[in-house]
Amino acid sequence: MANAINLTLFRSVVGLVRKAFADIPEEQMRAQPVSGINPPVWILGHIVTTISVVPKVIANVSIVPKEYLVWFGPTSKLENLPATTPTKETLLNQLSAVYESVLTEIPKLTDEDLAKPNALKFMTQELPTQRDILENLLMTHTMIHYGQLTVWRRLMKLNPVIVFSKD
Q1: Which pLDDT tens digits describe the chain residue by residue (167 residues)?
Q2: What is the distance between the alpha carbons of residues 146 and 120, in angstroms, rounded to a whole number?
Q3: pTM for the complete prediction?
Q4: Which among 1, 3, 29, 90 could disulfide-bond with 41, CB atoms 3.0 to 4.6 Å apart, if both were Cys?
Q5: In CATH, what number is assigned to the domain containing residue 125?
Q6: Cβ atoms 151, 161 nearer than 8 A
């Protein structure tokens, strides 16, 4: 059964995230070119952690380790990151596992499931239904942090991820 969550858009968003991290060397994953900017390890960990909420909420499927919530969750603080964090490869593998779970679980939802009240009790005024909160986590929220990474990439003098041709 088709539902209103656009998995094509989700695939595109995750593709951009993967591309944005592809050329970042492991030794730069904790770099903060200016004070207060989130380093790539936190951004990627946060994206993985927040997307992993989707299969957890809709199918009670846990994919990421519990400590990810402490290190990368919504209330996490950079100063509390452990000295050794998961590698970029580990986080990208976690992203793949979460991605596959989302692609498996979302199509099982009915329109009635998606019309239910926001079960996360987060931003319930702005995102009142399950559809609203799930789409936010899968696309909008992820792209907010993708935007943070594009600023980090510019500060680190890396090439842009999206390049428009002049044709």
Answers
A1: 445 789 999 999 999 999 999 999 999 999 999 998 999 999 999 999 999 999 999 999 899 999 999 999 998 988 889 999 999 999 999 999 999 999 999 999 999 999 999 999 889 899 999 999 999 999 999 999 999 999 999 999 998 887 677 76
A2: 22
A3: 0.93
A4: 29
A5: 1.20.120.450
A6: no
For residue 38, CA distances in Å to 20, 25, 110, 144, 150 come to: 15, 16, 37, 12, 11
Residue with tokens 């779970």: 101
Whether 164 maps to a domain, the answer reads no
CB atoms within 10 A of CB 73: 14
- Asked if the structure places residue 114 within a domain, the reply is yes
Domain count, the chain: 1
Residue type, 72: F
Q: What is the pLDDT of residue 45?
A: 97
Tell me the torsion sign for CA atoms 2, 63, 93, 17: positive
Domain membership of residue 42 (yes or no) is yes
Cβ within 8 Å of residue 100, ≥6 positions away: none
Q: Which residues contact 157 (CB under 8 A, 6 or more apart)?
A: none
